Amino acid sequence: MTDVTAVRVDTPGSPATARLLAEAARAVDAPDLVLAVSRNGVRTVHTGGGGEPGPVPRELLAHELGSASKPFAGLLLARLVAQGRVRYADRAADLLAPGFPVHPAVRRITLRHLLTHTSGLPGLPADFYPQAVPRWSTDPYGGYPADRVVRAFLRARPRHRPGTRWHYSNFAVSVLGHTLAAATGTPWEVLLHQQVLAPLGLDATRVRPGPEGADAVGHRRDGTPVPALDTGGFTAAGAVRATPLDLLTFLEAHLGGPDPRDPTLSGALTDVCRPLLRRGWRHAHTHTLTWFHHPSPYGPVLFHAGATLGQQAFLGFRPDTGLAVAATATRRVHRADTFVATAYGLLTESP
Q1: Against a cut of 0.70, is the pTM above it?
Q2: Residues sharing a CB contact under 8 Å with residue 237, sequence separation 6 or more, in sequence order
Q3: 248-269 b/e with 16+ CB inside 10 Å = b?
Q4: Angstrom distances, CA of residue 295 to CA of 134, 269, 311
Q5: Considering all CA atoms of the chain, what is the largest pairwise distance in Å, rounded to the nearest integer?
Q6: Buried b (16+ CB within 10 A) or exposed e, 17-35
Q7: HSE-up of residue 132 (Cα within 13 Å, Cβ side)
C-alpha cells in the first residue's frame, strides 16, 4: 500500500475529490504516485507513494508517458491536417520516400491508418527483437534508430490489407512521426513543440530527459531504479515526458478550456475526440483518431494509458461532464498491477 506523503488541494472547493483521491491512492503500490483531477477547471492533486519524496514535488517532475504519448502525436497530425499541410488520406510511403519501390499494401497505407492502428503493420518490426531481447529490461529501443524504423517500413509486408483490421502498433505510430517530419521538413521534436506543446503552454513537456532532478525516476518491481528511457527511432510512439500538471492542461484543452488563438488547434482538438472506428470482438469498442472511447454512466470517456521500463501513466477525460484524470506512477507494470484500473475508476465511477 502507498503511504501518503502529501495531499495538495489547489482550490478550497474540492475536499470531496481530495478524499476520493486519497482513498484511491491506497490501492496503488509505487515509490511515487500522482493522481490529478480537474473538474471543470478546478484541480485537485494528490501525491504519495512508498518512497521518500525528493526536493522537487512529485507533481512538478516530468514522468515518462510511454504509449500515452500517442495522443500528442494524434493532436499534431490533426493540426497539420487542419492547416492543410497534409491530409489523413495521404499515403505515407509517398511522403516518406517518393518513388521508392514498396510492397503494394505498404503503398496503400495512409497517415490515418498509421495513427489508428489499422495499417496492417505489426506492433514492432520483425528485426527489432534480436537486438532488443538481450537488453529487454534495460534498453530495448535505444539500439534501433530512426533510419532503421524507416527502412523496416519501406520493406514491410503488412499482415492485413490496410484499413481492414485494428492491431495496436508502436511501429506504425513511429512511422507516422518520421513521415510528418519528412513531409514538413521539420524534426519531430521541433514539430511537436511548435504545433502542440507551445500553443497549449506545456512548458514542462518534452521528448528527452531534462536537467538533473527534473525527471521522475522509474523503478523495477523490486524497487531498483532504472535509467531514463531511450526510445531510439520510436519517438512518436512513446517518448513524451510531462509533469502531471501539464497533463491536466493537455486534457483540459480537449474539454474546451481556454480557446486557442489559432482556429486550427480548436479544430484539431475537436477532430481527435470524434468517434472514428469500431474495433475488437464483434466491433464492440470505439476508437477516435487517437483515444480509446468507452461508455460510462456519465457519458463517454476517452483515455490512453502507457508504460515504460519503470513508469506508468494514464490520461483520460469525460467531455460531457468536464472531468479529466491524469495519473503517474514510478513502478514497472506487472500482472497484478492496480494502477490503470484505479485511474480508470476515477474517470468512470464518480459523478
Answers
A1: yes
A2: 67, 69, 70, 73, 170, 171, 173, 174, 177, 231
A3: bbbbbbbbebeebeeebbbbbb
A4: 41, 20, 27
A5: 62
A6: bbebbeebbeebbbbbbbb
A7: 17
C-alpha of 317 from chain center? 13
Residue 291 and residue 20: Cα distance in Å, rounded? 25
Q: Check: CB of residue 317 under 8 Å from CB of residue 39.
A: no
Q: How far apart are the two ends of the chain, measured CA to CA in Å? A: 26
pLDDT in tens, 234-267: 999 999 999 999 999 999 999 986 565 688 999 9
Q: In what order do the strands lie in the sheet with 301-307?
A: 6-9, 42-48, 33-39, 323-329, 312-318, 301-307, 292-294, 285-287, 277-279
- Phi, psi dihedral angles at 15 (to 5 degrees): -65, -35
Supply 315's cell numbers: 490520461
The strand ranges marked E within the chain are 6-9, 33-39, 42-48, 63-64, 241-242, 277-279, 285-287, 292-294, 301-307, 312-318, 323-329
Q: What is the DSSP string of 106-119?
A: HHT-BHHHHHTT-S
What would the pLDDT profile of 336-346 be if each residue is shown by its tens digit?
Answer: 899 999 999 99
User: Which residue's entry shows cell 485537485?
Assistant: 44
